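User: Before I run my own analysis I want an independent prediction to cross-check against. Here's the chain; please return only the structure tokens and, at the end, one sentence I can use as a sanity check.
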Amino acid sequence: MQSDFKESNSSAPISFGKRLVAVQDWLLIAYAASLSLPITIPWIILTIGIIVGLVQIALSARQKTLRLSVPPLAVPIGILALVYFVSGLCNGGLKEASASVGIMRTFLVYFWAFYAFDRRTELKAKVMPALLCMGAAGGIAATIEHQFQLHIGSFKYLQGTGFLSGPMAFAGVMQLLGLLSLALLLTGSYQKLSGFFKDKKVFIAITLANLLGVLFAFERSAWLGFAFGALLVAGLVSRKLALKVVSVGLVIAVVGWFALPAVQARMGSILRGEQEESSRQRMEVWISAIDQYKSSVKSEIIGVGPRKFSPLPIQGPNKQVLDHAHSNYLQSLTTTGVVGLFAYLWLCIASLKLAWQNARRNRSDEHLDKAISLGVFGGIVSLMIAGLFEYNFGTGNVRLAQWFLLAMLAGNQTWYQFGGKADHD
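Assistant: Structure tokens:
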């Protein structure tokens, strides 16, 4: 792709432009590391990164070298934003419409990271160690947290939460990072990384630590989604690996059942056919969501509004108020109607298509881009399956991670640009 910065006799603009590129590179690495940390940190880094990016664009425009590619998922994202706007407008006026679109601010990371990766694809190999090492640290932290009952917050979760505030956010991020590290390990593409990350024993340890995060999140929907995602990733590499993954998974399930009481606590009631507290709560909020959806013709078409889901007080041992439908699909249907559900599904399918096309384009199993594509493909499938029972699409930590990874896939592809076709394949 054509450089954003034009060579000239004046050294000052070039020097400043190069400094901006270096700053943006480090911001991307820092952002990748921050995804396993409290959400305020990635937001601060993202905000700085967007400002630096806008300065880069202004400098390129001044030098008449500006050339912006169209991100491949821009259209489905834009359609979903339009649906949010219309739904908010119909359920509260212009102010509510603007606030409803504001819910989608997490998608800003996709556009910021896309333009960075589109210009410098070598950043993927630099970002990966920071991303997976911090994920590994979060997995180890969750293990210690659960085993020694060391909870960072005041609420004593049965699950581990790593460095994040709650188990659902932690589980979603660890699904993505666990499947990404697994894809790099199974394909052998970790050898494309630098330094000691090329060492197989080192990378196995990093992968296992990320998988500990999935295990000790103790989210049943995350376990289900991850199992499908892992089998899918392994199967796309080879049938033998798929069989090995199934065998290892069964061993982990048996050992976890006998060694970790929390596994029995989370799974025992389901295996016995009993409806425990969390299942009962889900049934109540699902019924409430359907009732809200059916409340009027308008709600069936365009929903009750992205921010208008009626909170449901839950009675029982853990009294709480649920302000979402505990399902990506029911939440979309209730808040944005049939139109919004189709827009959300289109976005999911478009994301899967992008990952699948990238995986198919890179034939070699050891190609880093192919491994990332397989990992992201499995991660999206995992989140979609878990999203049957969780509203992970509305979890900020998860979206900031998911759309950062999708930006890696979107960058440096053959897509149309404003003003012409991309000059890179």
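Sanity check: The chain has 16 helices and four strands.
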